[in-house]
Amino acid sequence: MERTNSQLSCFQYLIAGPCAVESEEQVVETARRLWVQQTHFPIPLSFFRAGVWKPRSEADAFCGVGEKAFPWLQHISHDFGFQVCIEVANARHIELCAKYGIKAIWIGARTSVNPFIVQEIADAIHHSDFTVLVKNPIIPDVRLWLGNLERIEKAGIKKLLAVHRGFSDTTENIFRNAPMWDIPIALHLMRPDIPIICDPSHISGQRQYVKQLAQIAIDYGAMGLMIETHCNPCAALCDAAQQFTPEELSELLRSLTFKHSVSNTDDLLRQQRTLIHNIDHQLSQLLAKRFSIVKEIAHIKQEHDIPLLQPNQWNSVVQNYHQHTLQDDCYAKFLENFLDLLHHFSLEMQQNKKEL
Ligand code: PEP
Ligand code: MN
Question: Which protein residue has the closest C-alpha to ligand 1 atom 9?
């Protein structure tokens, strides 16, 4: 491998394995081929994932083989040295994990919408040494995701990870689930101490998009990836379109560009960061000054019965900004949103609804 682990210190978790345990042959064959490929991975496999119970939309869809999967998973741990991670959705599942020695679990996106069930799981694992991965809830609500992580944390769990797997959204149609990158970013800003890993398989829903999503996640600084891997994806009983063979996973991992650790780059960025810091300081002072003038304008308009909305005046403000615009679509979009926000708040303030 051309990369060393120390260079990849941002990338610490690699999780692979089938969507579901289907049979002993399928799960052992997948694990065996992952074990063979592992020497080409940037880091060793952190967990072999496999669903024992599957939360399916259709009532008659394959819903997992249940308890009989555990002895097969125990063999995988024993023969290949993989730590197994499975999905749990209630306290009974936790009991079975404890019975069969499973030490890593994930809370799925459908369970993650329900604080009662997450609390039931938290109570069942209280002060144990489980590693717990909490997937984002299917609804785009960062507080709910964070709340679930905190429920598990309050149960005394030390090894806690967040998994970004995308959100249900009827307006997006390329991906199975909308990535809504702003949400994992918001979570990261609120709790930088909780590692976030990305599950591009469930975001994409199709193999062809997994790589681009994995690269975006890594570019943002995701600390790991969970990628569904099956010995024969086309024959998979669930999520067939998004799974990779172990060999394809190996190729995909080799094609990604990983990031260096943040501490290594601090020196390189120090100068620019100081400049940005100073600019932000000036911006915040200027904005405060601008809004205090808006207040004065509000008084004058009120005294002289002048309407709040003055289209010509606002158009000249917009014009003024566009004189300095960069030739860049992204910046133009930013400016449009920024000016809308500025105008919106200026008008609100003039209606005396907002105080600075
Ligand atoms: C899974 O990982 O197989 C799964 C069901 O995921 P999610 O809860 O993200 O849909
Ligand atoms: Mn799946």
Answer: 109
If 0-12 CB within 10 Å is exposed, 13-18 middle and 19+ buried, where does residue 214 land?
Answer: buried
What are 254-291's pLDDT values in tens digits? Answer: 999 998 776 666 778 888 999 999 999 999 999 999 99
Residue 353 CA to residue 48 CA, distance in Å, equals 54
Atom of ligand 1 nearest to the CA of 166: 9
Instruction: Taking each helix axis as running N to C, give the angle between helix 142-154 and helix 182-190, from 0 to 180 degrees, rounded to the nearest 10.
Output: 40
For the chain, give the mean pLDDT: 92
Nearest residue to 230 via CA among 254, 201, 203, 198: 201
Model-level pTM? 0.86
* Of residues 16, 23, 47, 17, the one with CA closest to residue 237: 23
Q: pLDDT digits over 35-73, tens only?
A: 999 999 999 999 999 999 999 989 999 999 999 999 999
One-character DSSP codes across 144-185: HHHHHHHHHHHTT--EEEEEE--B--TT--SSSSB--THHHH
234-237, long-range: CB within 8 Å, 24+ apart, which pairs?
Answer: 236/18, 236/19, 236/20, 236/22, 237/20, 237/22, 237/62
- Ligand 1 first shell, C-beta below 6 A: 19, 51, 55, 108-110, 135, 165, 202
Q: CB–CB of 207/193 below 8 Å? A: no
Domains belonging to the chain, first-starting first, are 13-260 (3.20.20.70), 291-355 (no CATH)
